[in-house]
Amino acid sequence: MYGQNLVKNPSFEEFVNCPKKLGNLEEDLVHWNIPTLGSTDYFHACSQAMGTPKNFNGEQPAEFGDGYVGLYLYAPDDYREYLQATLTKTLKKDEIYTLSFYVSLAERSDFAIKEFGILLSENPLKVATTKVLSRMHLSKVPGDVSNTFEIRYSDFYSDDAAWVKVEKKFVANGTENYLIIGNFKDNKRTQTFKTKRRATEGSYYYLDMISLVGSGSESKGGNRTVAGNSRHYSTNEVHRFNNLLFEFDSFDISDDAIAELMQIVSYLNSNPTVSISIMGHTDAIGTAAYNQFLSKKRASAVAQFLMQHGIAANRIDYDGFGSSRPIGTNNTSSGRHENRRVEFVFTKNN
């Protein structure tokens, strides 16, 4: 049984002022704001200048009511726009939630993108940048900002006629009060598809009906069917993922690592008295404080994957060690790549 939507004004129908100009979302819209200096837009049928279905970036009827928002998820010089909402209550630790929303690519976009970035934070964000909301920015934000993930799709979000629903389940840390939607990758790391149009040199999306609901149940292991065969692991011994090496300044889990991670899921399901400790590491580039933050994010990404595949949160522990435990030289690119890793230890519970 799913609960009520924790997002206020989810379909952007409530407003203070009928929108009249670009980038005026914070002044016009109720319960939504912008966490950076980007100029996210609000559209409503009440307006001629910022109306629906026709507006400066194309034509798109609203899916729910008369309003929606628009934002650049990819643009020259790493320009980005984001959307931030205050949740109606703090998320419950270890509960499974489902986030969903509807998207449509604006007709004048040159590119479509592969995924939307999601950040759930303890405190509201207000960062003085028009560019990517980077991990360096997040490392300076007070409170917990560790619950981040991407909503991916089997094809690029390239439909500029219909609305496409995207959704993902995740496990809460118990500190989340704010929801931020956007693209947290720079242009080099963003997967794009060229739409053969030439107008904005960017990727502009309309968003509507944003929903965040709890399942009323906690993440539990032991009864989830998973792909792959379980292999044997020794307890109280450090193991290293063979296929889970990270790009520079990244904590994204690649498709190549999924099969190996699913073996861990299978093993934990087959051994319900075993717990796992996950340890993230970085190379030596960057400050000690930032590397500590990044290494913990890498360990957290693995922990989130396990919980999203049914492993109970109380069986998982994770931490980051920055660049303090190298296994290769930091003087070569191959050695640094080897140091950007995650290790784990299985422990049998008494």
TrEMBL record:
UniProt xrefs under InterPro entries: Bact_OuterMem_StrucFunc (IPR050330), OMP_bac (IPR006664), OmpA-like (IPR006665), OmpA-like_sf (IPR036737)
Stretches assigned to the OmpA-like domain: 233-350
Keywords of this entry: Cell outer membrane, Membrane
GO cellular component terms, semicolon-separated: cell outer membrane
Chief location category: membrane
PANTHER family named among the record's database cross-references: LIPOPROTEIN YIAD-RELATED, STATOR ELEMENT OF FLAGELLAR MOTOR COMPLEX
Protein name according to UniProt: OmpA family protein
Organism for this UniProt entry: Maribacter flavus
Lineage summary: Bacteria, Pseudomonadati, Bacteroidota, Flavobacteriia, Flavobacteriales
